[in-house]
Write a structure and sequence with these properties.
The complex is a heterodimer of chains A (about 500) and B (about 210).
Chain A (H helix, E strand, L loop, with lengths): L12 H5 L49 H10 L4 E6 L3 H14 L6 E2 L4 H6 L2 H15 L3 E6 L1 H6 L3 H16 L1 H5 L2 E5 L8 H16 L9 E4 L5 H13 L4 E3 L27 H6 L5 E4 L6 H11 L3 E3 L5 H16 L5 H21 L3 E6 L1 H13 L3 E7 L4 H14 L4 E3 L4 H10 L4 E4 L4 H7 L3 E3 L17 H20 L8
Parallel strand pairs in A: 1-2, 1-3, 3-4, 5-6, 5-7, 7-8, 9-10, 9-12, 10-11, 12-13
Helix pairs in contact in A: 2-3, 2-9, 5-7, 9-12, 13-15, 14-19, 15-16
Chain B lengths: L1 E3 L4 H13 L3 E3 L5 H15 L2 H29 L3 E5 L2 H13 L3 E7 L4 H10 L5 E4 L3 H11 L3 E4 L1 H9 L4 E3 L10 H17 L2 H5 L6
Parallel strand pairs in B: 1-2, 3-4, 3-6, 4-5, 6-7
Helix pairs in contact in B: 2-3, 3-8, 4-5
The chains are: A alpha/beta (about 500), B alpha/beta (about 210).
The complex binds iron/sulfur cluster.
Chain lengths: ~500, ~210
């Protein structure tokens, strides 16, 4: 009897039903034939009137998520810090889900678990009960209190609640227990901004609450923004080569990318994260670098105002020019020379650019992402001789527009800039143009498939591929990695097989 | 009639449909061999048609024949393994049976949104000594892993990474690893994913004493 199992083919329902035996490996996805029927035979462009997001009240395919998420991201980058979300469970569940999807790591986030009655009577009781449980069970060093839409709308007085909670818990648990925990309140009403602003606000509140000025420490402060653990490792690598001591606030490199090693501490805390004493010491540093102006700039500005500490805000050191600026400012601030190894790393990136410009030059690119990353990617594309045709950011930002224009002017390009727009609008521009390549996050994957334009993944969030969170895009070595991704994607999609072997 | 697979939220809707429109419903689980067979029989029984009953028996017999070599393969390798589970209420009571069909032993169960009747059903089906936790937090999950040392934990996306950090394999039990898991043929996929979880070489490296 012949078996209808076509090993590299697909099985229809009829094939499946007539299988004499299900193989040990079961019926795998690549064998299942799932027929998808398009709603209509060809692409019908949407009504042109609803394309500009500014003309709509509804956002379609948003390129941003809610403000508390940014603050949670920040808090997760602090050692033994647990975010406590003053809101309903959903405001915590979906961020946790997002963290897990991107990083494939556990993330502990507590919630005040609002229900209907909380919305009426306020969140005071849930807050105090929650803090008590958290302190008794988890012994955190810092609790990052993060508000959400509902607690902001009902007007929970977090500062007042915290004072009350501290008094109550001090009596109950003793002052030693309570002295071991620090509290940082960040207000993140999501209707007032996106995750970008959430991170920005957390940078300011953590520093306001914890940073002190005592004796100068000769360090530099770095507020990285929402970049990958790999990026943060790359920043540390640069500091090491330059022989500079730095404090990175919010260091997710060892909290969102952790080894599997036994035994684990219980309750589980990753061993990394910025230490609270280091945040305290950030008041004594030489200078602050906020790598992403919109994600963390507020922290640098606070230190500048409060302690007269010079601040360098952006650009994200991605590609040659922006990394050059970063390295030069580091050297200037500390008086250290630019290390020879760094010059070599720069040379290797330039070497790779020299080897590949025939592939990259003239390619029309559509870019979408958070403002700082989209602006940085635009500049790098120009450095590779590519043509950024459409540049969109999910969150509105003046700095983004300024940066993209500056790059465009310098390289004589004329990109369409979509500031704080949704992917629906961006997609329409992309489909009307002749685009060779997309630089964007996982949310662009569907558009990439539909429009048949290859996607190079960069930015936040990337959840449909493995390993991107571990890689660096910043610094010269990060540029090298991004260049490889771009060129390999072009080779895969734009060149015939017999032209890729030279 | 309505056939209810998710017997938590769908029960409420079905009760309303029954009240308002006099459309009856039967509860049926399509997880596992025994339960799927039972579901088919009960649906046929409801309509009372001999032809339908016969057809149900034919399907059951045929499907069992088709899947049993694969199921035997996995059962042999999974018998005696201990499982913990943290899934929706009905799955905790439905999967007790499914685990048994693979020779595995449920040692603890957890749910967030289970109601009282879920717990009654879990109690009725669970073997003595199964430890149950309502609405656990992560620390309680860790404590259960420590205490029961399961060979596998059936849970969702947010918790699975925590369990893996403690060296315990997981199978995504909400949206599946490589599903579908329902019905007879889905059971082979389920068994395969469980087997792959338990026997992945990674776990043996984690426990190498020289590197602890
Ligand atoms: S938008 Fe507001 S209510 Fe919705 S999850 Fe975010 S914080 Fe919560």
């Amino acid at each position: 009897m012949t078996t209808p199992l076509k090993l590299n083919g697909r099985l229809t329902i009829e094939d499946l039903n007539s299988l004499p035996e299900i193989p040990i490996e079961g019926i795998t996805y690549d064998q299942m034939y799932i027929e998808k029927q398009p709603i209509c035979p060809e692409y019908i462009p949407p009504d042109q009137d609803i394309i500009p997001s500014s003309k709509r009240t509804a956002v379609i395919d948003p390129g941003r998520i809610c403000m508390p998420f940014g603050a949670m991201w920040a808090a997760v980058g602090v050692h033994k810090c647990i975010p406590f979300v003053q809101g309903a469970q959903g405001c915590t569940t979906y961020p946790r889900y997002t963290f897990s999807r991107i990083f494939r790591e556990p993330v502990s986030i507590a919630t005040a678990s609002f229900h209907e009655d909380t919305a009426v009577f306020g969140g005071r009781k849930n807050f105090i009960d929650g803090l008590r449980n958290l302190i008794i069970r988890y012994h955190p060093e810092i609790i990052a209190i993060i508000t959400v839409c509902s607690s902001e709308i009902i007007g929970d007085d977090m500062e007042g609640f915290l004072e009350e909670a501290q008094e109550e818990l001090e009596e109950e648990l003793g002052p030693e227990v309570l002295d071991g925990v620090k509290f940082v309140i960040t207000h993140t009403p999501s209707f007032a901004g996106s995750h970008v602003e959430g991170y920005n606000r957390a940078a300011a509140t953590f520093l306001k609450t914890l940073a002190k000025r005592t004796t100068p420490n000769n360090k530099v402060n770095i507020i990285p923004g929402m970049i990958t653990p790999g990026d943060i490792r790359e920043i540390k690598h640069i500091l090491k080569l330059m022989d500079i001591e730095g404090t990175i606030l919010f260091d997710i490199s060892e909290t969102l990318d952790c080894p599997l090693r036994l035994p684990q501490p219980m309750p589980y805390y990753p061993k990394g994260g910025t230490r609270s004493e280091d945040i305290r010491d950030m008041g004594n540093s030489l200078m602050t670098f906020a790598l992403c102006p919109d994600q963390g700039g507020a922290g640098a500005k606070y230190l500048e105002k409060r302690f007269k500490m010079p601040a360098v805000i952006g650009p994200l050191p991605l590609g040659i020019h922006s990394t050059d600026l970063f390295i030069k400012s580091l050297a200037e601030a500390t008086g250290k020379p630019i290390a020879d190894e760094i010059k070599d790393e720069r040379g290797i990136l330039i070497d790779a650019m020299a080897d590949t410009f025939h592939y990259t030059m003239g390619m029309r690119v559509a870019i979408y992402g958070d403002p700082d990353i989209a602006a940085a990617a635009t500049r790098f594309c120009c450095e590779l001789g590519m043509e950024p045709a459409i540049v969109g950011s999910g969150t509105e930002s003046k700095q983004f527009v300024k940066d993209v224009w500056a790059t465009a002017y310098e390289y004589d390009r004329k990109p369409i800039i979509l500031n704080g727009s949704d992917m629906f609008e961006w997609e329409d521009y992309l489909k009307k143009d002749k685009i060779d390549l997309i630089l964007g996050n996982s949310k662009a994957a569907n558009v990439s498939k539909e429009a048949d334009v290859p996607l190079v993944r960069i930015g936040f969030p990337i959840y449909d591929r493995l390993g991107y969170q571990r890689r660096a895009y910043v610094g010269y070595r990060g540029g090298e990695y991004l260049l490889d991704l771009i060129v390999n994607t072009i080779l895969d999609s734009k060149f015939p097989d017999d032209r890729v072997q030279q | 009639m309505n056939v209810l697979h998710c017997q938590r939220s769908c029960t409420y809707i079905s009760d309303l449909i029954k009240e308002g429109f006099e459309v009856p419903y039967v509860n049926a689980s399509f997880f596992g061999i025994e339960q799927t067979a039972k579901a088919l029989r009960e649906v046929a029984e409801f309509f009372g048609s001999e032809e339908m009953k016969e057809r149900a028996e034919q399907i059951i017999e045929h499907e069992l024949e088709v899947i049993s070599p694969a199921i035997e393969f996995y059962k042999e390798r999974l018998t005696g393994k201990k499982v913990g589970m943290y899934v929706g209420g009905p799955r905790v009571w439905h999967w007790q049976r499914v685990m048994k069909e693979l020779g595995m032993k449920v040692v603890f169960g957890m749910c967030t949104f289970a109601h009282e009747d879920d717990y009654e059903k879990i109690n009725a089906r669970a073997e003595d000594g199964v430890f149950l936790v309502d609405n656990p937090n992560e620390f309680e999950i860790e404590e259960c892993l420590e205490r029961f040392k399961p060979d596998l934990f059936l849970t969702g996306l947010k918790e699975k990474y925590l369990c893996r950090k403690f060296g315990v394999p997981t199978v995504n039990s909400h949206s599946y690893e490589k599903g579908p898991y329902a019905c007879f043929r889905g059971m082979v996929n389920f068994a395969r994913d469980i087997y792959e979880g338990v026997y992945a070489p990674a776990w043996k490296f984690v426990r190498d004493e020289d590197f602890i």
